[in-house]
Amino acid sequence: MKPIYSQASKRNGHLKRRYLARRLEILRAAGREFRVRGFAETGMRDIAAAAALSPANLYNYFRGKHDILFFCQDNSLDRMIAALEKSRRMRSSATTKLRMVIVSHLRCVLDEVEGSAAHLLTTTLPPRQQRNLVAKRDKYEAGVRNLIVAGMRSGEFAPCDPALAVRAILGSLNWSVQWFNPEGPLTSAEIAQTFAEYLIRGLLAKPDAFQRLSTEREANRSLKGLASQQASVRINQGLLSQGD
Fold this sequence. Notes:
Layout: H1 4-37, H2 44-50, H3 55-58, H4 65-89, H5 94-112, H6 127-154, H7 162-179, H8 188-201, H9 207-243
Helix pairs in contact: 1-2, 4-5, 4-6, 5-6, 5-7, 5-8, 6-7
């Protein structure tokens, strides 16, 4: 028989995960409303309706739309910083690491956390919340800048002002939430890959390095596609054998 405290701890963990999952659902619903109506014109009743909740129930998860906005930005920055740390641990080139960060950043603000459509509205938050977000943004910006510096030292990237370069990159990535249309011709994944190519191309010291990078990526895609097809064939053959 399991100890009572162990069962209680497991139950509390499950409740916390459910609570967080519900907050993320509300965040995505709020993000859609922010896109359509604008942040100032969106009310808590609008968000509650989009999230299929009663207004009273919505207040069990967020005290107001500014609380939703803060959660949106705080959650987004946590995801970006985690992706940055993962890239730094990779035993790869600075180009590969920066590509991963750029793709992860765009996928986060355009896809994973849809509420990031309000990314540029954080000046409406209370000063304490603004300070918390600015501290995380500074940490993230410094980490991406260090990737560029590392690329310059290795000779992959041409000499440049790393502070200016990182702001140009992050500025273009963040602005994408203003024009991205989920119903448009390109998916967030396709836009992320294209952005990575454009932004990294401007940093490379050797123009032909970009061409080699693209060729290697296409080769990897082909190999993955072939492996997927072979796996599908083996599965189908196994099913046919069972049917016999």
